[in-house]
Design a protein that fits this description.
Elements (H helix, E strand, L loop, with lengths): L2 H8 L6 H14 L5 E4 L6 H10 L8 E5 L8 H6 L16 H4 L4 E5 L6 H13 L1 E3 L6 E3 L3 E6 L3 H7 L4 H7 L2 E4 L10 H15 L6 E2 L1 H9 L5 H15 L4 E2 L1 H4 L22 H5 L3 H35 L7 H6 L6 H4 L2 E3 L2 E3 L2 H9 L3 H6 L34 H13 L13 H15 L4 H8 L3 H14 L1
Parallel strand pairs: 1-6, 1-7, 2-3, 3-6, 8-9
Antiparallel strand pairs: 4-5, 10-11
Length: 476
């Protein structure tokens, strides 16, 4: 198959000498079982060349297994590559087939090979040399016949000098080294690739075909393209979707290029071009565009705030019941997110830490309303006493209703407080718990059993008051 047919079949666009050289190298080695190392920056299309190597080989009727070595945790990479026996490690409840077994008689593409841990590099070297491997937890060796194609965005020769990559494995992998140049070194290919992507996206999104001006073409050809073909594809998609005029100038493209102008900031907004109806309205078009950008910014900030709020609520709900000492709460150096949600009971009532008060003002009181439902209590002194489990009290046999009202429960608790024998001894000082009972009883009497007014007078929430009444009722 000639070069033009390969480019058409696999969608490899370009007429530069650099890309022609890459295709010619791939054609020469595709029909063999020789190991190939593809080296190039991220986004240059290494996987596309690997796919071409597999499809042009005698193994094209078998599968090509793609493995991203950088995405597998270090502790699992050996079991992922070579498989594992049942019970070989915690969680291995069944026999696992590794990627090499899956690629038997086919091709295995090891992407990001430079990220592979050194302990796995030793086993990979043995597979490359003998075709034999051993599953994790097994003693019997297995034979595999797989063609290996590896890729990396690092200079493995430099990694060998640093000591992070084995020299013998590098020599074994780089039997044939195909260096794919970055897009900035083949400027002649930029416009053909961009036009191809633009045509595809215009059909996909059913948008009008855009035409680049001369200055826009010059800008694309002189831009450095740090993201290579992947970034160029992204720009073409944005032009097809967001640009509402058929002619695209350099000024239209600059906000889309990450390291040119003010659009380099990660929080920058995408510029949306006014449509024909906006232009017909004269001076109002600029105002509409400005309002639209402000709207987009507001939506973006709202999403960030809501995500932040959700994370903090999740953290709050996962730590319900945590008690921290008062000195830690006042110092404000709680572990994790406690600084945001611990409420300290002081003489003047519940007081939220600084971080919580700031966020409460920012979110319009939403966090405060949730804080009233879940409160972390800090005792005045000493360690917090353990909370006793709640007991469901059965209703009296002669009671007609299934349960008493809250007002009746308050009255019952108040009556029991008054008859507490521990409070009738004048010669002894009452404990803090007894004083609390007396204070609640007096407040309930003063406000005729009104829990809301009682809670306000005591500087606590109604929920806290109701819980204390239930605790008093159980203690008595």
């Amino acid at each position: 198959m000639d070069r033009a047919s390969i480019q058409e079949r696999f969608g490899i666009v370009g007429t530069s000498d650099a890309i022609k050289n890459v295709i010619d190298q791939a054609r020469q080695v595709a029909d063999t079982d020789i190991t190939v190392l593809l080296q190039g920056e991220s986004g240059v299309g290494k996987e596309l060349i690997a796919q071409a190597l597999h499809e042009l080989s005698m193994r094209r009727h078998e599968q090509m297994v793609v493995v991203n070595c950088g995405a597998i945790p270090e502790g699992l990479i050996e079991s992922e590559l070579f498989g594992a026996e049942k019970g070989a490690y915690t969680g291995a409840v069944e026999e696992r087939v590794g990627y090499f077994e899956e690629a038997d008689e086919g091709t295995i593409f090891l992407d990001e090979i430079g990220e592979m841990p050194k302990n796995a590099q030793v086993r990979l070297l043995r597979v490359l040399e003998t075709g034999q491997f051993t599953r994790v937890g097994a003693s019997q060796q297995q034979q595999v016949d797989a063609r290996i194609v590896a890729a990396t965005n690092k200079d493995l020769a430099e990694e060998v000098q640093k000591g992070t990559f084995r020299k013998d494995l590098y020599y074994r992998l780089s039997t044939v080294l195909i260096d794919i140049p970055p897009l900035r070194e083949r400027a002649d290919d930029v416009l053909p690739i961009f036009e191809t992507f633009l045509h595809e996206f215009s059909q996909e999104y059913n948008s009008s075909r855009k035409q680049l001006t001369t200055d826009a073409e010059d800008l694309l050809e002189t831009y450095r393209w740090p993201g290579n073909v992947r970034e160029l594809r992204n720009i073409a998609e944005q032009v097809a979707v967001l640009m509402r005029t058929e002619e695209v100038s350099a000024d239209d493209l600059r906000p889309l290029l990450r390291d040119i102008g003010q659009a380099s900031a990660s929080t920058g907004l995408m510029r949306v071009e006014p449509g024909p109806e906006d232009q017909a309205s004269g001076g109002g078009a600029e105002d509409d565009l400005r309002q639209r950008e402000l709207l987009y910014r507001a939506i973006l900030e709202m999403r960030m705030d809501m995500r932040d709020l959700k994370e903090r609520i999740d953290s709050l709900m996962s730590n319900v019941g945590v008690v921290v000492p008062r000195e830690v709460a006042e110092r404000g150096d709680f572990p994790g997110d406690y600084d945001d949600f611990v409420v300290v009971n002081s003489e003047d009532g519940p007081t939220a830490p600084r971080g919580h008060r700031e966020r409460d003002r920012r979110h319009g009181g939403e966090v405060d309303s949730m804080m009233r439902d879940v409160i972390y209590e800090v005792e005045e002194s000493g360690p917090a006493r353990p909370t006793r489990p709640r007991r469901d009290r059965p209703s009296p046999p002669d009671s007609e209703a299934p349960s008493s009202t809250e007002a009746e429960a308050d009255t019952t608790a108040e009556a029991k407080i008054e008859t507490d024998p521990a409070t009738e001894t004048p010669d002894e000082l009452p404990t803090l718990e007894e004083s609390e009972k007396q204070l609640i009883s007096r407040a309930l009497k003063q406000f005729d059993g009104n829990r809301r007014k009682t809670a306000e007078a005591l500087g606590i929430s109604e929920r806290t008051l109701y819980r204390k009444l239930k605790d008093i009722d159980e203690d008595l």
